[in-house]
Amino acid sequence: MNGFPLHPGKHALPAVPDPAEHAAYVRTTDPEADLSTLDGVVLLYQGRLLEHALRTYRTCPRLGWVRGGLHVVEDQGRRFALCGGFGLGAPAAGLVVEQLAALGTRRIITVGTAASLQQGLGPGALVVGTSALRDEGLSHHYLPPGRTALPSPALTQHLTEVLASYDVPVTRGPIWTTDAPYRETTTEVSRYGADGILAADMEAAAVFAVGHCRMVAVATVLALADSLVDRRPRHHSPDTEHALRAALAGAAQALHTSASSPLTSGEH
User: Fold this and answer.
1) Residue-by-residue DSSP string for 88-138
2) 88 close to 45: Cβ distance less than 8 angstroms
3) φ, ψ of residue 141 in degrees (nearest 5)
C-alpha cells in the first residue's frame, strides 16, 4: 500500500515552481507590490467577516497581488492587510500564504470558524491554536512525516495576550485539521476529544506548515460555530458573529504588537 505523499521525502526536495515567480509577475504590472513594510496580514475565511472589516476600516485594495481580495489598512498607527475571498480548505489557504510570503509579509494571523470537540466549549468561544493535527493533505508536502504542525510560539502568545482584553471566552489548545468536514466520524470525535483536542477546522495545519517552510510567523484564532460532540443543525449565532469580530480586532492588534518585537530565531 502506498504512503502519502506518493513520493517519500518530497518535503526535502526542491520544487519546480517558485513562489518568487508569482511576485515577479505581479510586479510587472505593479512595481510597488510589496508587503514587507506592513505589520502583517489577517486572513479571513468568512465573507461576512470581510464585509464587516471593509465597513470598519479605511482600506485600499491591492488588485491582482494575490488570489482573492487584498486590502491594505492604515488605522491608529497600524498598517496591516486584510485578505479574503480566496476560498476554504487547506489548498486555498496554503496557496495564498505562499503568495503573501513571496510579496514580503513576515506575519500572518488567520481568523475563521470551527466545530467544538469539547462539551464545555460552545458557539461564541474563541480557540487559539497551539498545534494542529495533520489530517489534511497539504502539510505532508511541506513537512517531514509527523502528527502535528505548529504555529509561531511568539505570535501565538501575542495573540493570546491581546484577546484576553476582549469580552469573549478564549481557550488555547490543539485543533484537528481535516479536508473532509462531512466525513468527521463519531470515532474520531471521541478519540480526539479525549486527547484534549479542542476543535476541528480545515486550514490550520496547512497554514502552519507553509509558514514554517517559508519562515513566516503564523498564528490562528477560531470562533466556535457549532459542536461535533452535542450535534445539532448549525444555525446563525450572534455569539459566533461577536466572537469573529473580536478575533479580527485582536488579530490586527497582535500583528502590531508582534511587529514591535523583533523576530527571534525560534519564532517561526
Assistant:
1) SSHHHHHHHHHHHHHTT--EEEEEEEEEE-STT--TT-EEEEEEEEEESSG
2) yes
3) -90, -10
**Spatial CA neighbour of 87 closest among 44, 37, 26, 146:** 44
Tell how many helices (H) and how many strands (E) occur in the chain: 7, 10
Tens digits of pLDDT across the chain (268 residues): 567 899 999 999 999 999 999 999 999 999 999 999 999 999 999 999 999 999 999 999 999 999 999 999 998 889 999 999 999 999 999 999 999 999 999 999 999 999 999 999 989 999 999 999 999 999 999 999 999 999 999 999 999 999 999 999 999 999 999 999 999 999 999 999 999 999 999 999 999 999 999 999 999 999 999 999 988 766 778 999 999 999 999 999 999 999 988 654 346 6
Tell me the pairing of strands 199-201 and 170-178.
Answer: parallel
Write down all domains in the chain, each with its CATH number in brackets: 20-259 (3.40.50.1580)
Cα 188–Cα 191–Cα 196 angle in degrees, nearest 5: 120
In this structure, the dihedral spanned by the alpha carbons of residues 101, 102, 104 and 109, taken in order and rounded to 10 degrees, is: -20
Quote the CA–CA distance of 60 and 160 in Å, as a whole number.
28
Q: Which residues contact 8 (CB under 8 A, 6 or more apart)?
A: none
β-bridge partners, 114: 224
Report residue 23 as a C-alpha cell: 511576485
Residue with cell 530565531: 265
Q: Are 117 and 197 in contact (CB under 8 A)?
A: yes
